[in-house]
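SAMPLE LOG
Freezer: B-3
Tube label: C17
Construct: single chain, 69 aa
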Amino acid sequence: MTYALKLAGAAILLLLIGAFGIILFGDIWSRIGIGAAVIVVFGGLLFFVWRTDRKDKERRAGIDELPPV
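STRUCTURE (predicted):
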């Protein structure tokens, strides 16, 4: 039962994030068009993922030099 509640909670959270995104970027979509708005949104997401990956690589930099077991 708890898995179903977690799944429902995640679905509700995703719905709220989507609604917030529509409200937040609705003005951008109407002014510059859907193509440019998609580029802005996905560009921001790609930057976030790139920065997170770079921080993760720096955090585990010494792990790669361990001798094989």
